[in-house]
Amino acid sequence: MHFLIAESETSEQRDERRKRAGRSSGETFAETLSQMVGDARVTRVTPADHDANVLSAEDIELFDAVFVTGSPMHVYEDTPEVRRQIAFMRAVFASGVPAFGSCAGLQLAVAAAGGSVQAMNPRIEAGIARRITATREGLTHPLLEGRPSAWDALAIHTDEVRALPEGSTLLATNGATRVQAAEIRYDRGVFWGVQYHPELAPGEIAVALRAQASALVEQGLACSEAAVDQQARLLDRLQEDPSSRSARWELGLDDECASETCRRRELSNFLANIKHLRDASMRTEDRD
Fold first, then answer.
1. 157 has catalytic annotation
2. Strand, coil or helix: what is 37?
3. Global pTM value
4. Is 199 a catalytic residue?
5. What is the DSSP letter of 124?
6. Torsion angle of the four alpha carbons 193, 18, 10, 267, in this order, in degrees rounded to the nearest 10
7. Which residue of the set 183, 197, 257, 266 is catalytic?
8. Average pLDDT of 192-203?
9. Distance in angstroms (rounded) separating the CA atoms of residues 103 and 69
10. Helix or strand or coil: residue 134?
11. pLDDT digits over 134-156, tens only?
């Protein structure tokens, strides 16, 4: 299989993340997919960049699936970088190639299909999204197959989906963020997305928490930067030993978030359904 990974970070944001975490969001996604599908080919593109090659729907049709990463980008800001990425996402929908995205990746798909995104302020999810629950539609949707009635997930975001576009299905929600998982159908394409990060490891969330420590204190989520560092230390321990009973107890996590296999469940489900989604797109086109 040949996967296309779209970095939703700008070049500056990619460089900053490499300094903190050792790799960009797209490089993390590529590593995760390589671990899950050992014989897959992966191509990364950077549609936010002013000198990026602009891919048409016909170009994207050559791939089996598209993955859109998270980033600090704000989709509701009318900047050249955002406009270029929304144009890319519309080309993905026009191609009919199934797509998956997390965090800002979900928000890009929402904006490209006609929905809206907003800042969460003063609310925020940083570290772990708690008590995510499937909607009635989500209970039987293949994206969430295997999930229990409620679960926690690694997450860090200050923006959220305000309104899903027409042709969308809300699949999961929680008390902090209404849209935690959704399916979006637009043009010829279908997109499965989550607001949390099944592609990330706990240590990467720990790096992000440390980078935003002062902001988390200012927003009242933590009482001090030392408290943020303590949370990050626990996530580092979980990274080093996913079975650590003490780290799980102090973080309040079970297998759904602590176990790598469970944490990646949405990605696994998407990978298992790529052929079905692609075939369904072609059948729809034939009927049209």
1. no
2. coil
3. 0.95
4. yes
5. -
6. -10
7. 197
8. 97
9. 7
10. strand
11. 999 999 999 999 999 999 999 99
pLDDT given at position 219:
85
The Cα–Cα gap between 165 and 70 comes to: 20
List 181's β-bridge partners, or say none: 172, 194
Residues for the chain: how many in total? 288
Q: Is 50 a catalytic residue?
A: no
User: Between residues 285 and 247, which one has the greater pLDDT?
Assistant: 247
Q: What Cα–Cα distance (Å) separates residue 125 from each residue in 54, 77, 235, 241, 269?
A: 33, 20, 15, 24, 24
Structure tokens at 59: 């170009």
Q: Cα separation of 11 and 7, whole Å?
A: 9
Residue type, 286: D
**126 within 8 A of 209, measured Cβ to Cβ:** yes
Q: How confident is the model at residue 252 (pLDDT cuts 50, 70, 90)?
A: very high
Catalytic residue among 7, 81, 103, 125: 103
Catalytic option among 27, 125, 199, 266: 199
What is the enclosing helix (H) or strand (E) of 157? strand 150-157
Q: Which amino acid is at 267?
A: L
- pLDDT (0 to 100) of residue 42: 96
Cα gap 212→109, rounded to integer Å? 26
The residue with tokens 């900053």 is 16
